[in-house]
Amino acid sequence: MKIVACVKRVPTTEAQPVVSGDGTSLDQSGLQYMLSFYDEIAVEKAVQIKESVGGEVIVVSLGPTDGSKEMRECLAKGADRVVLAKDEEWQSRDARATAVALAAQITAQGADMALFGRVATDRDNAAVGPMVATLLGWACVTDVIELDVADGKGVAKRESEAGIETYEFSLPAVITCQKGLAEPRYAGLKGIMAAKKKPLDEVDVTVEANQAQVVKLSPPPARAEGRIIGEGAAAVPALMDALRNEAKVL
Amino acid sequence: MSTIVVHVEQVGGAPRRASLETLGAARAVCDTVVATICGDGAANAASGLGAHGANKVVVIEGAGTSPDALAKDLAAVVKEHGATAFLVGATSGGRDVAPRVAALLDSTLFSDCIALDKSGDALVVRRPWLAGKLLADMRTEGPVLCATLRRNTFQPGAGGGDAEIVHADANTDFLAVLKDVAAKAADKLDVSEAAVVVSGGRGLGEAENFKIVEDLAAAFGDAAVGASRAVVDMGWRPHGEQVGQTGKTVAPQLYIAIGISGAIQHLAGMKTSKVIVAINKDADAPIFKVADYGIVGDAFEIVPALTEAVKAVKAEA
Q: What confidence tens digit (pLDDT) does each residue in B169-214 have?
C-alpha cells in the first residue's frame, strides 16, 4: 500500500509571534519551527500501517527548502522518502490553495491513502485534509483516534460531542489524525543514519492565488488586570461574592 | 439581497446552541437566512428556527450518516439560493463538514471565527492564528465565504417570526458511512460546550487528586472537567479533556484553573473565557496574569471549601 503522510512546518508552540510592519503578516524573523504536532502522529500511523501490511510511506509537504531538517526527522522515524513541494510562501497560503497543491502531489504519487494531522498548529483551520479528500473524490474521516485498514477497506473512530463515532469506508481515503491514534517514536541513531540515505526530492510547484486576504493582523486585546483575592480557604467567601455580585456568573 | 446558508445541527429535535448562535450571527449581517437541518427529529427542530432568525428552512430528509454526502447536499442548497456565505457552528460535526462544503464550492474556509461583520457589501471575519496569539481580520476573494463560528461567542438569534419550511432529498452516494455512536454518559458535558470549566494541572500531584476537581465541577451541575497538557501526557486524564493549543479551545462563562501554572500553550486555549479564576500555590505563576480572580494557596484546602460554597448557592436557587 502506498501511504502519503502530509506534514507542515509551523512555528513552535512556545513562539511569541509578532505582527510585521505592514500590519497584515507575521514577522518571521526569529521564529523557530517544528513539525506540526498532529502531523507527527500522521507520520507514525503511516509507518505503523506499512509495518503491518507492507508498502511505502511517502511524506509530502508544501514548504520551504529550509524545512529539510524537519523532513529528515520524518525519514529518521520510518518514512521511506520525502516529496517537498517547494514554496517559500507556504505560511501565507490559504487552506484551499494548500489543498489544491497537495491533492496534485498525492495524485502524482498514486497513493491509496493520505494521512494528515487533524489541524496545523499555526492557522488552526483543520481544513486541508477534508478539502483534499473532497477535491479527489475520496472518503474522509477527521479527528481519528482509532484506525484499522485491511483489504481496501477501513474502519475509523472519532470523538464528537455525542460520543465515539465509528465510520466505515473504502480506500482511497484521507484520514486526519487526533492525539491518541499513535504515539510518535523516537528516531534513534540507526534511524538518523538511515535517513541520510533516503531520498528527499524537491519539486517545483505553482500554487494558486489565495482567496483569503488578511485585512488586519493584531495581537488580542489584553485582559483587564485581575486581582488576587487572598490566600487559602479563607479567601473563598470573597471569591464567591466576586463571582456572584461583580462578575455575575453564579 | 444577500443570502447566507446556515447549517443547523440538532440532537433529538433540539437545535444545538452553537447553531442558534450561528443563526444569530448570520441574521445580523444579511437579508435572508436559509437554514439547513437533517437527521431524526429535524422536522420538529425546523419549526422553531424562524424564531431564531431563519427566513427559510430546508429539511434534508435522510441525510446525516455520511459527511461527504451531507456536504454535497449543503453545497447544493448554497448554489440553489445563490448564497454569498455558508456558516456552521465550530462543533466537531461543523468543523468536519465545512471544509468539504467549501471545496465543493471552489472556496476556501475560515475556521473557528470569533467575529463576523459587514464592511460595505463584503463580509469580514476575525479568526485566531497560532491558537489566539494573534487575531486576523480576513475577507475572501472566493465565490462563497465559508466559515465555522466559535461557540459561546455570538448571541443566539432571537425575535424572528415564522420561517418557510421546505423539504429536500438527501444525496445517497456515500463514501464514508457512520455505523455507530457510542454515546458518552448523559451527565458528562464536553469541555468545549460547558458553561463552566473546572481544569486541573500538575499541581494536583497525582491522578487520584482530580477528585477535588470533579467534585467542584459536579457542584456547579453545568460544568465540565478540563486538564492541562502535562497531566494528559502523563496519562492522568483523557485527551478529550485537554485545554490548550494541542487540545481544545474553550470560551466558557467561567473557567477555574486549579494547580495549572499557565504555560503559553494552555493560555492560548482558554484566554477568551468570560471570567477566569486561578487557584495556585505559586503567587508568581503566569496563570494569575490572565485570571480575573486569584487565590494563592493549597488547592486541597481551597477547592473543597469552594465546592461547599457553590453547593450552598445552588441549593438556594
A: 999 899 999 999 998 776 678 898 899 999 999 999 999 999 999 9
Q: Do A250 and B310 touch (CB under 8 A)?
A: yes
- pTM for the model stands at 0.93
- Is residue A188 included in any domain, yes or no? yes
Nearest beta carbon to residue B129 from set A94, A123, A211: A123
All residues of chain B having their beta carbon less than 8 Å from the beta carbon of residue A164 are 181-182, 184
Residues B254 and B304 in one domain: yes
Q: Which domain holds residue B299?
A: 196-316
Q: Which residue of A has its CA nearest to B192?
A: A161
Alpha helices in chain B (DSSP H): 17-27, 42-47, 67-80, 92-104, 211-220, 229-233, 264-270, 287-290, 299-316
% pLDDT > 90, chain B = 85
- Number of domains forming the structure of chain B: 2
Q: Does B277 touch chain A (CB under 8 A)?
A: yes
pLDDT for residue A243 is more than 70: yes
Residues B16 and B161 in one domain: yes
Q: What is the ipTM of this complex?
A: 0.95
